[in-house]
Amino acid sequence: MTIFKQFTFDSAHFLPLVPDGHKCKQIHGHTYKLTIFIEGPLDNATGWVADFADVKRMVGIVLENVDHKLLNNVQGLENPTCELLATWLWDKIKKMLPLLKKIELYETPTSGVIYEGY
């Protein structure tokens, strides 16, 4: 069974490796939407795959590092593309939630990345 939980966080960034004149070379911000998917067996004793309160707490610990931050200043996110941010989030969340199956990260309402820990 797969469950999911959604989060939002706000961050600023710029992309230092894009060509001069590209709009993303300038500092700008996004309200990111993160959906995490957890896959595992349904626990007969609790009736759930995972406690949503525990999921919220654990992911919140990770998001504290990027919420209302300049992503370029976060270790490992010096070139904070949506794709690299997704892999960074995956690595941190997977350590806390081993049943993590997939994440979806929206940088804008119409653009984002799906990552399954390749």
What's a quick, concise take on this entry?
It is built from two helices and five strands; from the N terminus they run ββαβαββ. It is α+β, with helices and mostly antiparallel strands and 118 residues long. Helix 1 (52-63) packs across helix 2 (82-96).
Textual characterization of the structure:
With 118 residues, the chain is α+β, with helices and mostly antiparallel strands. The protein has helices at 52-63, 82-96, and strands at 2-13, 28-39, 69-70, 100-108, 111-115. The protein has a single domain (2-30, 43-115), classed as 2-Layer Sandwich (Tetrahydropterin Synthase, Chain A), CATH 3.30.479. Strands 3-1-2-4-5 form a five-stranded mixed beta sheet. Strand 4 (100-108) and strand 5 (111-115) form a beta hairpin. Helix 1 packs across helix 2. The longest helix has 15 residues, at 82-96.
Can you summarize the main beta sheet? 5 strands, mixed
CATH architecture: 2-Layer Sandwich
Indicate the overall shape.
elongated
Unreliable stretches: none
Mean of residue pLDDT values: 97
CATH topology: Tetrahydropterin Synthase, Chain A
Cα end-to-end separation: 21 Å
Number of domains: 1
What is the C-alpha radius of gyration, as a whole number of Å? 15 Å
Give the % helix: 10-25%
Proportion of residues in β-strands: 25-35%
Instruction: Determine the number of helices (DSSP H or I, runs of at least 4 residues).
Output: 2
The top-level CATH class is Alpha Beta
Class by alpha and beta content:
alpha+beta
- N-to-C SSE series? EEHEHEE
- Kindly report the spatial arrangement of strands forming the biggest sheet: 3-1-2-4-5
Number of strands: 5
Give me the CATH superfamily: 6-pyruvoyl tetrahydropterin synthase/QueD
